[in-house]
Amino acid sequence: MAAILVNVGVVAVMWVLEFIDQLTRNSLDQFGIEPRELEELPSIFIAPLLHFGWGHLISNSVPFIVLGVLIYLSGAGRWLFTTFVTAIVSGLTVWLLAPPGSLTLGASGIVFGFLTYLLVRGLFTKKIGQIVIAIIVMLVYGGVLWGVLPTQAGVSWQAHLGGAVGGILAAWLMHRKRDRPTSGKAEYWA
């Protein structure tokens, strides 16, 4: 139940912020990420909560909740870590690579991070349940991975790519095997 409450709660905050933004004639959009402006770096934490209108917000809401719940079921700490790493890597990628004079908002970087985290986590853990989840997630959401390419004007492929890299990084940091036990025999890779 906490998994649903937390993810729906975060999305509810996004909806409240969009409502305020609409009432104030898009006054919150100024908190988006502007590339290569040093004073804009803190925006990488705010921008994922803000959106360019209701359509943009709606397109991020359902996948954020569904994928976020799947991650949260493994623990609040894993969800928080994945969200944090993904937001940072996605935001920094936008900050470094987006065109000058652009402004980037939205949770899609985190959605891409959630997606790739779920897709690769099973490769690191080798747990059958997580591999099955990865297959199901790939079947349902795999098509959106094309969003990491610059294919659509006005859509931040930089945020998508950074989020995808952030999700893989989070999975690797949390689930890599550190001290593999050995059998005491020499091991050779063929």
Strand content: under 5%
Helix/strand class: mainly alpha
CATH topology: Rhomboid-like fold
Largest sheet: none
Query: Which CATH-level-2 architecture?
Result: Up-down Bundle
Q: What's the level 1 CATH class? A: Mainly Alpha
Unreliable parts: none
- Taken in chain order, the helices and strands follow as HHHHHHH
Distance between the termini: 46 Å
Shape: globular
Helix share, percent: 55-70%
CATH homologous superfamily grouping:
Rhomboid-like
Please tell me how large the radius of gyration is.
Answer: 18 Å
What is the residue-averaged pLDDT?
A: 91
Task: Give the strand tally.
Answer: 0
Can you tell me the number of structural domains? 1
Assembly type of the shown chains? single chain
Tally of helical runs: 7
How would you describe what is shown here?
The protein has 190 residues and is mostly helical. It has one domain (2-175): Rhomboid-like fold (Up-down Bundle). It is 62% helix and 0% strand. It contains seven helices and no strands. It has helices at residues 2-23, 43-46, 54-72, 76-97, 108-125, 128-141, 157-175. The chain is globular and about 50 Å long. The termini are far apart. The relative contact order is 0.14. The model has no long low-confidence stretch (mean pLDDT 91).
